[in-house]
Amino acid sequence: MTNIRRNPGFRAARSSPGAWSGHALQLALALVLTLGTVLAVVGAGAVAAASPAGLGDAAPSAVGLVYLAVGAVAWSRRPGNRLGLLICVTGTLFLLASLYNAAEPVMVFLGVLGGQSVLAGVLHLLLAFPSGRLTGARDRALVVAGYLTTTVPLFLQYAYSGEPVVLPIFDQGADAGVVAAADLAHRVLATAVLLISAAVLVQRLRRSAAVGAQRRTRAVVYLTGMLVLTFIPFSALVLEPVAALSSQARFLLQIGALAVVPFVFAVAILRGGFARTAQLEELGLWLGSADGRRPVREALAAALGDESLELYFPSRPHGWLLDEGGRVVAPERDGATVSVDAADGAVAVIAYDSSLIGDPSLVQQAGRVVALALERERLTAELLARRQELLESRSRLVQVADDERRRFAQDLHDLLQSRLVLATLRAGTLGSAPGLDPAIRHDADALRDDLTEAVRELRRLVHGVMPALLLERGLFAAAEDLLDRSPIPVDAHWCGVLTELPAAVSTGAYFILAEATANAVKHSRASAIRVRVERADDALTLDFADDGVGGATPTGAGLRGVRDRVDVLDGRFELLSPPHQGTRLLVQLPCG
Amino acid sequence: MRLIIAEDETLLREGLVLVLERAGFEIAGTAAAADTLLELAERVRPDVVVTDIRMPPGRADDGLTAAIRIRRTLPGVGVLVLSQYVQRRYALELIGTNPAGVGYLLKERIGEVRRFVDDVEQVGSGGTVIDPEVVRVMMTRAAHKHGDLERLTPRQRDVLELIAQGRTNAAIAARLGIAEKSVVQHASRIYDDLGLEVNPVDHRRVMAVIRYLSW
Hints:
Chain A is an alpha+beta fold. Chain A contains 16 helices and 10 strands. A 5-stranded antiparallel beta sheet of chain A has the order 3-2-1-5-4, covered by helices on one side. A 5-stranded mixed beta sheet of chain A has the order 6-7-8-10-9, covered by helices on one side. By secondary structure, chain B is α/β, with parallel strands linked by helices. Chain B is built from 10 helices and 6 strands, in the order E-H-E-H-E-H-E-H-E-H-E-H-H-H-H-H. The longest helix of chain B has 15 residues, at about 180-195.
């Protein structure tokens, strides 16, 4: 309760878990407040009409508005808790009570009914504390009995009073006996309900498993409630005659006592020991609701009342902290964090604003309630992180493989090929020497031809590993050369600037075209290939189509290589290959 | 004939020098890098420059770039490029619009010493030499691009290939074991079929054929 000053103001209604969705809650709140205002205006009109108007006449309206305001705040802060709603309902009864001052009999009747039900409303609040829901038949019976005891005898008195009534059916003629009996019944029954309720509450307090702040809060709420409830009849029956109070003063005292009630309840569920229970209830509702897809962060932020709350998930293999998307992050805030732990390690770290939430154990407990949901989130984050890691490492592997290809091609070229060419030259020189034995000349020429063949084999090998043209002239020249060599005629179209592509994209695109061509040559039995390579601002599109037998699958060895290359470049891959209708491969590589 | 030889591999360079000296050429200088080649060619003005493609300082296609530059700035100097790559594109870049005194050969051709020596002489005397492998790539490409080549007989295609390689009618006749007269007949049929202009000057007809194949 002492925390209330530190609260930086109640927050506006936010989307609620469980029974009330955000829209429904806002609608309900708007409705309650509108109804309250209308009633207050009507009541004010009634007060103004009555003469002489006194402070006491306006009091019920004022208290009713206070109930409505406090109830609305509590309701919007704890949408899963019904106490806020109940406070609003009780406030409405107060506003109804203010109609007592009106001139019309029907208004007066409603006013009296409202005024009497207020006490039943407070009893209802007490029995429904802290969740706002009545549990068990006994509680329900007590509350119903409360409402009936305050209204039925009153109705009887009214019907048998002999005074003019609202509706003819209420007119039972004057009967002083019934009126007296009703009055007695009212007193006896009300006292009985009050006593039983008191006993129930005392028992509940005793049996309550709660300790510490919760137990204290519960005791304070119960005591205040019971005191107020007993004070009302006490003030009328004892205080007024004994202390010789004016009825006006008595009325003001009663109203004043009742005005305390909503604050006690609201503070108890928002800031007191029960704040925790209420929070957990919110989270429990969130867990159980169909709305479970709402991020756990939002549910926690709403329950704890800290919109800036952040979640971090420890990645088990490294101990790094991940965000929901699996990115490695460093929590910015210094200090205000709480770790939620499970048996096999930390599940999440909750970073919160310690100026909003003073007690870390509050956060801890909330985190424990949703620990399973947090664990699910943590696993998702870890999976995402691993996927990213895999993508990166795959991309690194391809990069390394390409570098390796380049180096390998260069080494073959620089070391082996020039050696072989030199040997060819030597063999040729030997064979062309004058006056050579024809047999030796023949052997020398054969050796030269073998070496020449070796040079050509090596050239084909080097070309397959990494064509020099790709490195020296870029994608267009290399791809054109590649397609020129295809045994199946290729109709190629080139659009856009194909120079100045990132090296990874141009290498990737070249090998994708090479794979696609090799596949077509090997499997498609196509008679023509159509290739379109288009460079737009931010993407390179490869459209490769043959008129062959189709039926290619993306899992085939060649196409798997294509897919790997596309994945690594974060591109898109589409394969259309219906049987007997050719194969079309569409690839888009980002190159911004 | 005075030659410059540019090759960064020492042994290979010395081998080339030896072979060509033996064949009666005068070696006016050697270079192991593209930039020294340029400077040397400028100074010596040889009849033919024989150069490797892959050379320092860039270790990429520096030799080719130098060769193209020499052809542009020193019109009287023949250029024979020895390449590791069967690259139609490189050959076309080298020839440009003037096929006189230019050659593009795969490196291993230097093993066929006699033919290589002939090729150097042909380039030195303003002829054209294009490696058969490169011409084959051009033929395949042209066949895919337009069906005209399908109309030629195999013999006519052989003749066309040899013309594209820069061979003279006499050389083609010797190569195919037919009379020079039949080569001329084949050639005129080819020109008719492909719609090419008849041009008696050797390097001009090479240009026409290459243009046709690269179209």
